[in-house]
Design brief:
It contains ten helices and 49 strands. A five-stranded antiparallel beta sheet has the order 2-21-20-23-24. Residues 1-17, 522-560, 597-615 and 692-696 have low confidence and may be disordered. 32% of the residues are buried. The radius of gyration is 31 Å and the shape is globular. Among the domains are: 25-126, Sandwich (Immunoglobulin-like); 426-503, Immunoglobulin-like; 551-696, TonB-dependent receptor, plug domain (Ferric Hydroxamate Uptake Protein, Chain A, domain 1, Beta Complex). It is mainly beta.
């Protein structure tokens, strides 16, 4: 591997060490609630981070998905990352969704180079209200063992993690003893409330070891894995030093390799000493995991172990917090949290104590779950009351975890090939061919025009007629006019092929453990689930739409009202208000200055009604849909002129009707892709300025499958966090990521009286 200078203060006290830095991105994703109903909005927030502590996110965009338990995609948003990778959005819960459990997932283009298991996934509940009554149920106990290094060696002191759980896949706190087949007691211990404990003993060849646990008045026997004569690696962290040692030194591992992986520094070659030992010294390293991998000469993993490294942190003293509040009272957050709010990313969430299952927290999500997989659920930080037990839970889980970020054997042999590059700008790409014959439009050019938001771009075609053109951010459902020209600058009837956006298949690797947890909470309301094998879905290809150059009747094509160029030319509209009078779809309130303001329901020429409300009158022109939805609360109709939002009065005063190309009254479904809350539709006006270069020209209209999500909601600025209105016991979840990318997660119990 190519030696790269490390910039994070890593000092290696060994010769011949080299490193391969692997640029990666991780995402923390969270929502404002855990339970939703039809018609609700999901407030989504999160952060895109790089693996190292110095680099800002490589990607400018992040994708957020909502899918159901059958891995069917319900919704996908493309969002622009803001300050240091922060993002915020709202996602609508459609009416008619079947009640049940749904899942949120987030990723960037760069993350598609790595397995889908590295993407954050967590469940939300839609339409579920009935929880299962506690019955006491089955008290069966189960146990899993995770030796450090992957297997028990012979004749060497070794750590082994113990995990006890019940039939509902919930952790169990229980006492146990480890004995030999001869009945000799090795150790007595007790698991934490999180179900974990770590034991250290020296396995002997030919002996069998048992764990005997006491739970709910019953005794359970479990057989430990048999010790084997095989090399394994052990690591220890002492302050700022990582010590590593290869056990079973009498085994032939001279041709083996030892690697160390950390997301901040990449992959390091660790040399063997004569004693099969070594040391790595850390300086100013951020919290995180370090994984040692021992491989044979082909790169296949023989032994793997992961350690947690943590610098001193400002642990909150819960006793200093206010623990009791009145309903709707402002939370008293620690002073340093409020001060850091402007420079750090801060998330504060409040959930009822009984509904905190699988709440995502930044520390475990970014530093553990994004890099590893395990047969055991990640420890729930807030399930274990004290810090010592939480550390035991974390150490135990990491001994169970396997690195999935990359395939070490392939990395060693071939390096790492990034198929997907970071997405820093939006692009359109494709191929243009001549007709007939489908010959490439060799060395021609292409012009792209955004017909909704404005803007035009041009790019050259290569010898095969292919193009990639960077364009400004465009909204979802935006339509582009694409026009190709040959190398002489002549346009014609060409064939256009556009590259489809490819999104990763949905591989819900957490379904088993999440559904087991949720079934335990909700019982048979969820139904039964099965999961066999990998269930890796093929990549989902989202195909773009090509629209004909001539604007078809949108009444037939889209199911909306439409006035085209011919109709506009036949009528001599004086202004915008005059044009509206020929629509049957609008209500125009009388204005205060109108002498006929008292005339109710005065029918205008084409069918529009004018009216005066009982409680309101208007100084300016206002337009309402004729059939206002109760949900809209008589909100004025949104109006867009060439992609920009105008008021009706602005359109009336500034719009020259002779310059109008066409007018569309969008359906609510299509309108809400442009502006949130457009329950009664929206009016879109396109002027002729967009046609100046394309009149009588050849080309196609193309709607890319995914643009920037059309968001129209007020972003919170200065956050004020308040308690719920309903009395009860709650837990406050706090996640902080500072400028140095140090990640802190806390949980504080409170009571609302």
């Amino acid at each position: 591997m190519k030696a790269i200078k490390l910039m994070w203060g890593l000092i290696l006290f060994s010769l011949g060490v080299s490193a391969q830095v692997l640029p990666i991105e991780k995402v923390f994703l969270t929502s404002d609630r855990l339970d939703y109903n039809e018609g609700d909005s999901i407030l989504l927030e999160g952060k895109v981070m790089t693996g190292d502590t110095l680099t800002s996110p490589y990607s400018r965009y992040v994708y957020v998905e909502l899918f159901n338990d059958k891995d069917s995609l319900i919704s996908c948003q493309k969002l622009v990352c803001e300050k240091d990778g922060d993002f915020i959005s709202k996602m609508q819960v459609d009416f008619g969704l079947q009640k049940g459990f749904y899942y949120l997932r987030a990723f960037t283009k760069l993350m598609q180079n790595f397995p889908e298991e590295t993407y954050p996934i967590y469940p939300i509940r839609i339409g579920l209200t009935n929880k299962r009554e506690e019955t006491g149920g089955n008290t069966d106990l189960f146990c899993k063992f995770f030796p450090q290094g992957g297997h028990l060696g012979i004749g060497e002191a070794q750590n082994i993690a113990i995990y006890l759980y019940n039939q509902d896949n919930q952790p169990v706190e229980a006492s146990y003893v480890i004995v030999t087949d001869e009945g000799d007691s090795i150790q007595h211990h007790k698991t934490t409330p999180g179900g974990w404990q770590i034991n250290s003993f020296t396995p002997q060849e030919g002996k069998t070891y048992y764990l005997i646990a006491q739970h709910a008045g019953q005794k359970y026997n479990f057989v430990l894995p048999a010790p084997v004569q095989s090399p394994l690696v052990q690591t220890f962290i002492n302050k700022n030093r990582l010590l590593y040692k290869i056990l079973a030194a009498d085994s032939n591992i001279e041709n083996g390799k030892l690697y160390l992986y950390n997301s901040h520094i990449g992959v390091l070659d660790l040399p063997f000493t004569k004693d099969k030992m070594g040391m790595v010294d850390f300086k100013d390293m951020a919290n995180g995991t370090f994984t040692c991998l021992l491989t044979d000469n082909t790169g296949e993993i023989i032994s793997e172990t992961t350690q947690w490294y943590e610098t001193e942190k400002d642990e909150m003293n819960v006793s200093h917090w206010k623990m009791s509040y009145a309903p709707n009272e402002e939370l008293e957050l620690p002073t340093h949290l409020i001060e850091n709010d402007s420079t750090s990313s801060l998330w504060v969430r409040i959930f009822p104590e009984e509904k905190i299952l699988n709440v995502p927290q930044a520390e475990t999500a970014l530093l553990m779950e994004n890099d590893f997989t395990s047969s055991v659920p990640v420890p729930i930080r807030y399930a274990t009351p004290n810090e010592k037990d939480r550390e035991t839970d974390r150490r135990g889980w990491l001994l169970s975890a396997k690195l999935i970020r990359f395939d070490i054997a392939s990395l060693v042999k071939n390096g790492f090939n990034y198929k997907h590059k970071p997405e820093t700008t939006m692009t359109l790409s494709g191929e243009i061919q001549g007709n007939p014959g489908n010959y490439p439009l060799e060395n021609g050019s292409v012009t792209v025009m955004n017909q909704l938001q404005g803007g035009a771009w041009q790019a050259d075609l290569d010898e095969k007629g292919r193009f990639v053109i960077a364009i400004d951010d465009f909204h979802d459902k935006s339509t582009f006019f694409i026009q190709g020209r040959d190398k002489k600058g002549v346009n014609g009837e060409y064939n256009y092929t556009f590259n489809s956006d490819t999104l990763p298949g949905i591989n819900n690797h957490k379904r088993v453990q999440l559904n087991q947890d949720l079934m335990a909470e909700y019982g048979t309301e969820i139904g039964k689930f099965s999961f066999e094998g990998n269930n890796l879905m093929p990549e989902v290809i989202i195909k773009g739409r090509i629209r004909q150059e001539k604007h078809e009747s949108t009444e037939r094509f889209y199911g909306i009202r439409y006035i085209g160029k011919e109709a506009l030319e036949q009528r001599n509209y004086q202004n915008f208000e005059h044009m509206l009078s020929y629509f049957h779809n609008f209500l125009i309130p009388m204005r205060k200055s109108d002498p006929d303001a008292e005339k109710q329901n005065n029918r205008q020429p084409g069918g529009a009604h004018s009216f005066k409300t009982k409680s309101e009158s208007y100084e300016e022109l206002v337009v309402f849909p004729r059939r206002n939805s109760i949900l809209s609360g008589m909100k004025p109709l949104p109006i867009f002129v060439d992609g920009e939002r105008w008021t009706a009065e602005e359109a009336n005063q500034m719009l020259n009707m002779k310059d109008v190309d066409y007018i569309e009254l969008l359906t609510p479904q299509k309108a809400m892709t442009m502006v949130a809350g457009a329950i009664d539709g929206a009016l879109v006006i396109r002027t002729k300025k967009w046609e100046k270069e394309i009149i009588n020209s050849k080309g196609v209209h193309y709607t890319p499958p995914l643009g920037i999500a059309n968001l129209d909601f007020e972003r919170p600025t200065k956050r004020i966090y308040k308690t719920p209105e309903t009395p009860g016991k709650y837990r406050i979840f706090i996640d902080i990521i500072n400028e140095r990318k140090s990640i802190q997660s806390y949980m504080i119990p409170i009571e609302v009286k």
